[in-house]
UniProtKB/TrEMBL annotation:
This is SAM-dependent methyltransferase. Keywords: Methyltransferase, Transferase. One of its GO terms (biological process) is methylation. It holds the Pfam family Methyltransf_11. The keyword Transferase applies. It comes from Nocardioides massiliensis. It comes from the Bacteria. Coiled coil: none annotated.
Length: 248
């Protein structure tokens, strides 16, 4: 289940790419499959161990083009262990809403992106997220949970300003290139979960809707593809923003 549109990101075989806050690795796997040189980065060592195993399985099964590389790296989003301008493309999907010092994390992403490189950031969309917070304190008060709700204007402002020099001049300001919405079918699922109990996976309504989402992901039936395209702009759970770093 991908959130980022890699064609829109401009991903090409051979690109050096960073999946920051990779979690289970869904975006890293797709970038590797497309022939990129991938670093899956996270602070969770257990998650990274699983990602490393799947990378190895993909190689062994011949699922990646010749020359593609993939590795994992554990660390802190506020102090990325990479050189300035090291990456051609960066993905930060559903991670900034968990980080208190989000501006510092964004500055690090901009720092390690090469001039001319592209960045995709996704976060929970404002309206679906507000509904979740209203329905359940448990949804966002859990350890490691969501600590803020972004508007698109707020996040665009934070990212575009992150590349500017300290004197406030335009300088290396990031260029906003567009936005998209994703996972329109998933917002109602989380509304249901928040209403019946976030951890109440056995509730009949939650179980039934979960089966629908599994069907969508595994089988991709035409009817649900159409429904998703209709719902994404209206109640898509994720906001996806695309940026480019100016050429030096």
């Amino acid at each position: 289940m991908l959130t980022v549109d890699f064609d829109r990101l401009g991903l090409r075989a051979g690109d050096r790419v960073l999946d920051m806050g990779c979690g289970g690795g869904r975006h890293a796997f797709e970038m590797y499959r497309r022939g990129a040189d991938v670093i899956a980065f996270d602070q969770d060592a257990d998650e990274l161990a699983g990602v490393r195993e799947i990378f190895a399985g993909m190689r062994d099964n011949g699922e990646v083009p010749a020359g593609a590389e993939a590795d994992v790296k554990e660390g802190d989003a506020l102090n990325l262990p990479f050189a300035d301008g090291e990456f051609d493309r960066i993905v930060a999907a559903e991670v900034l809403e968990h980080i208190w010092d989000d501006v510092d994390a964004i500055k690090e992403l901009v720092r390690v992106l090469r001039p001319g490189g592209t960045l995709a950031i996704s976060v929970p969309r404002w309206l679906p997220e507000v509904v979740n917070w209203k329905l359940s304190d448990e949804y966002h008060n859990a350890p490691g949970g969501h600590i803020r709700i972004y508007t698109d204007h707020e996040l665009i402002d934070k990212v575009t300003k992150a590349g500017r020099p300290n004197d406030g001049q335009p300088g290396d300001a990031m260029i906003f290139e567009g936005k998209d919405y994703a996972h329109g079918l998933h917002a109602p699922y989380w509304w249901i979960k928040c209403a019946v109990g976030v951890n109440n996976d056995e509730h009949p309504l939650a179980k039934a809707y979960h089966k629908l989402l599994v069907w969508e992901i595994m089988k991709q039936p035409k009817a649900l593809q159409v429904a998703s395209k209709v719902l994404d702009p209206i109640i898509g759970k994720s906001l996806v923003l695309y940026f480019r770093k100016p050429e030096a």
